[in-house]
Amino acid sequence: MIIFNSTEEIKKIEGTVVALGNFDGVHKGHQALIARTVQAAKAAGLKSAVFTFSNHPKNVQPGEKPVKNILYFDEKAEIIERLGVDYLFNIPFDERIRTMEALDFIDQILLEKFNMRQAYCGFNYKFGYKAQGTPEVLMREGIKKGFGIHVLEPFQIDGQLVSSTFIRSLIGEGKVDQCMKYMGRHYAIGGEVVVGNKIGRTIGFPTSNLIIDESMVTPPNGVYVTYCSYNGIRYPSITNVGVKPTIGDYKKNVETHIFNFNKELYGKNIRVEFLEKSRDERKFAGVEELSKQITSDCIMAKDYHRRTKYR
User: 43-60 burial, b for 16+ CB within 10 Å, e for fewer?
Assistant: First the structure.
C-alpha cells in the first residue's frame, strides 16, 4: 500500500475507487465499506483507495469539542493495508480544506488529485465548507461528471448503529469487553515504557508504566484484564489505569504487570490490549492492604486468561 501524506505528493495516478470517510476507528462498519471498495476496484480494473484525514476535522473546527483518537496512525494504516487497499490518502485537514466549497472539493481533490472513478461512502458522509457536501451532492455531480457513487446503509450489529462515537463511549465507560464485537479487535494503547515509582517491584508486582497520551481516548480509572505485546509476543497481563491514590499524588497513567515475565522494559515499546474491566480504582488503607488486593486481582486475571485463551 502506498501512503500519501499530502495532496502535493500525489502526481498522476491510475483511476481509483475511493472509500470516503474519517475511518478514525476502522470499526466493522468501516471495514465493510473498505472491503466493498476493494472488491469494486478489482472488478473494474482500478486501484482501491481510502481517503482519510491525518487529524480529526472537529479538532480544528471553531467551537467544536475536541475528539480523542481511537487508533494510532500506524495501527490504522496497518489495518487498512490488511484489507487489500492500494492507496491511502492521509491528508491534513488544514485551513484550505476546511474552507473549500463542496463542489471544489469534488473537482480539485477527488477528481483532479485522486483520479476518482467511483466512490463508496456512508449514509451520513459530509464534506466541504460547513459540511455542505452530502452523498446526494456526490450523486448529482457524479451524473454530471461521470463518476459512480455507492452510499452504504447504516451498519448495525444486533440493532446497534456502529460508529466511532459509540465506540468512544464504550471505552470511556470502561466497557472494553464490548469493543471486539464492534471493532473486530480489542481496544489497545501503546507507547514507550517509562520509569515509575518502583513500588510494585517492592511488593512483588513489578509493572511497566506508560504515560497517558492525551490525544487518545482512554478508559476510566480501574483494574483491567489485559494482554501486553512486546517484541511480537503477546503476554497475559493485568493493568491498572489511574492515579495510584494509595501511594501518593500522581498523574493518570497506565501500569501493566505481565505474568511470568522478568525482562527489563524501560525504554522499550509495548502495546496493551484491554479485555475486561474487573474493578474501579480505589484508595486502600496502606501498602499491605493494596498488596492483598493486587494478589486477589491477579488470581482473577489469571483465571480469566485460562478460561478465554486468546487466539
Answer: eeebbbbbbbbeebbeeb
- Reading the block at residue 19, the C-alpha cell is 472509500
Tell me: the pLDDT tens digits for 105-125? 999 999 999 999 999 999 999
Residue position matching grid coordinates 468512544: 168
28 and 128 share a domain? yes
Q: What is the mean pLDDT of residues 206-220?
A: 88
Cα distance between residue 260 and residue 258, in whole Å: 7
Q: Residue 287 phi/psi, 5° resolution?
A: -65, -35
Question: With b meaning 16 or more CB within 10 Å and e meaning fewer, what string describes 88-114?
Answer: bbbbebeeebeebebeebbeebbbebb
With H, G, I as helix, E, B as strand and everything else as coil, classify residue 221: coil
The residues near 215 (Cβ < 8 Å, ≥ 6 apart) are: 68, 69
β-strand 208-211 against 253-258: which pairing, if any? antiparallel
Between residues 222 and 266, which one has the greater pLDDT? Answer: 222
Which region, left, alpha or beta, applies to residue 13 given φ > 0 means left and ψ of -120 to 50 means alpha? beta
Number of domains in the chain: 2
CA atoms within 13 A on the CB side of 137: 16
Question: What is the DSSP annotation of 288-301?
Answer: HHHHHHHHHHHHHH
Cell numbers representing residue 279 in the block: 474493578
Domain of 51, in residue numbers? 2-161
Kindly write down the DSSP assignment for every residue of 24-55, as one continuous string.
SS--HHHHHHHHHHHHHHHHHT-EEEEEEESS
Distance in angstroms (rounded) separating the CA atoms of residues 107 and 295: 62
Cβ-based neighbours of 156, under 8 Å, separated by 6 or more = 162
Residues 148 and 10 in one domain: yes
Give a yes or no: residue 125 inside a domain.
yes
Q: What residues contact 61, with CB distance under 8 A and at least 6 apart?
A: 98
